Amino acid sequence: MSIQLSTHRFTVHDFHRMAQAGIFSEDDRVELLDGEIIEMTPIGSRHAACVARLTKILSHRLGETAIVWAQNPIRLDDRTEPQPDVAVLRERRDFYKDAHPGPADVLLVIEVSDASAEVDRRVKLPLYAKTGIGEVWIVDLSEGVVLVYRQPSPQGYRTSSQARGVDQLTPEALPNLALSASDIVI
After folding, report:
1. Is the Cα dihedral 102, 108, 111, 117 positive or negative?
2. Element at 35 (helix H, strand E)
3. Per-residue confidence (pLDDT) for residue 46, from 0 to 100
4. Which terminus of the chain has a smaller tally of CB atoms within 10 A, N or C?
């Protein structure tokens, strides 16, 4: 005799209502991925430094042409609201005050991976591709490499490459922005 278990997948609306009801505190590091509430790994000092460096470099180089959105939510669909380490968004005067940005607003997502590498690659990356995020970079701190994923499809990203050291990276949606992998990986 087999037992069939049923699960409940949450919507973004449910997730926000749980937060408003006090189920999560402001200090809880959770995100909603494909209807499941996932506890995020703690941020180590190297990870934090990489995110801070990226935020500073991108904000300086992009100026008023885009919004650098650090560790804030983006809404991919009704059941997915991740908090990427850095997202570069289309410029908006209101800074998305009435609603979190969606896939059409996102020019680039950057995930910094040390302890979170498995979740970033196996869970988040397919969700980004399925919802049409045009480009994702995964900064693998342990390997010293930036993995670049482009051309999203429902089955995943069609192209991937990697950059190390002086290798140059230019996001397709931001052709005037050039970084070397060594600008990113610290």
Report:
1. positive
2. none
3. 94
4. N
